[in-house]
Amino acid sequence: MKSLLLILALLFSGYAPAEPFAEGNIKTGKTLVDKHCIQCHASSFGDDGSSIYTRELRKVTNSKKLLSQIRTCNTMLGLKWFEDEELNVAKYLNQTYYKFSE
Fold first, then answer.
1. Do residues 98 and 66 touch, judged by C-beta distance below 8 A?
2. Taking a C-beta distance cutoff of 8 angstroms, is the pair 89, 83 a contact?
3. 52-71: per-residue pLDDT in tens?
4. CA 55 to chain centroid
5. Which of 9, 10, 51, 89 is most buried, most CB within 10 Å of its CB?
6. 25, 85 in Cβ contact below 8 A?
7. Are the C-beta atoms of residues 87 and 33 closer than 8 Å to each other?
8. What per-residue confidence (pLDDT) applies to 3?
9. What does the DSSP 8-state code read for residue 50?
10. In the predicted model, what is the mean pLDDT of the chain?
11. CA 27, CA 24: separation in Å to the nearest integer?
């Protein structure tokens, strides 16, 4: 009964879970992934490379790790993305594959 009351209170209070990477632009993120990430992921994981995001033993298990992995790739590949570009990629990947809510 307490759980039901809590859920109802949250629904009517306007509470919504925080969306990670809210300031990112999903369309720009997709463009960056398509241009810079797909070829490398496809050569490592086959097909279109998207299995890197959905594999069972993936490294990325929360939104902080997602952003950290994007920054690692940015650095290792010398992409020289700015923070807003990393956030765009994070938003695209999160909404498309990961679905982290915070």
1. yes
2. no
3. 898 888 889 999 999 999 99
4. 15
5. 89
6. no
7. no
8. 61
9. T
10. 86
11. 9
